[in-house]
Amino acid sequence: MTRSRRILRLALFGLTPILCLGAEMTAQAGTRIETKAFGKTSTGESVELFTLSRAGAPSVTITNLGGYVVSMLAPDRAGHTADVTLGYASLPGYLADNSYFGCLVGRYANRIAKAAFTLDGKRYSLAANNGPNTLHGGPTGFCRRVWAAKVKSGTDGDALELTYVSRDGEEGYPGTLTATVVYSLREDGGLVIDYSATTDAPTVLNLTNHAYFNLAGEGEGTILDHELQLEAEAYTPVDATLIPTGELRSVAGTPFDFRKPVAIGARIDAADEQIRFGGGYDHNFVVRGAPGTLRLAARAVEKKSGRQLEVFTTEPGVQFYTGNFLDGKTLGKAGKPYVKRGAFCLETQHYPDSPNQPAFPSAVLRPGQVYRHTTVYRLSVAK
Ligand code: GLA
Q: Quick one: what percent of the chain has pLDDT higher than 70?
């Protein structure tokens, strides 16, 4: 072997471990996404599962059917992991879902009064799928659509990008809307949901994720013992069909005062007209601070396990819903019944019925504008 060859060999040899180490470090840095087949819809579309993992963060699985968060695995104070989101054991459950167990709701999350609105002088009629009102984008809203999925790799590892193009007139809404949602995991364990959208004609828009949480674990009884703090001085009271009256009412002295941590169950059956209308909590709270800035909206703690959920959002409101329509008939992922109040939702959003409420922050999107919002669901162990 010539001297120069020997030097080359040694150099390569010496480099190999460094190269391998380098590759390993790259592979482990940030978030990794594993993709698996989930099944096919009735029309033969393939649906996949994407598992996001990152050191120190809960493992989160998402499907591109409706963008459902299928599971979030979080350790308790002793290090025991539980799945803290409600859902189904397999794809058929999601295909038949009527509870919105963790999906991306659109085009307009929550209710639009009398299933109609006026925009730029034109009246649009929607399908009434909740008494006289439209709920969660209508009978075939974004939760029921297969979104195009892409795993994108960046300096912080992988992120899951889901895109859905909603055609002009779909479910009665004007304008072709392109909605993109990126799911990623932050270094501090937060699940980040970045929404953006554009349209080719004026439209109304309200996107959210409808994850149901039980911090003791899915199917582990009710959430009445969980303590909740809401960063809200006011909420939007509703009529008997859960449409806001237009008032922003102070929470002070009412069962809606969560400015200090209170057990969810403490006042859930109070003799209060608003509680009666909701069958418990099913109301939009006005999040303190400036919309457009990412700020804390809520913190929930389950004391026995020590698990804590913090919700941050750039949206003006958050719908706090206590699973009042769950009735124990649905069996969850592990076969346990989802009982009434067996979970809570904190749906970050514009106020319900904003298209008919000129005094509420506008939910109108016009061509040339980009709709954006970010929500973070951060699970940790309470100190
Ligand atoms: C939202 C609504 C509730 C209910 C659930 C889904 O939270 O405000 O009234 O429709 O979604 O069951």
A: 93
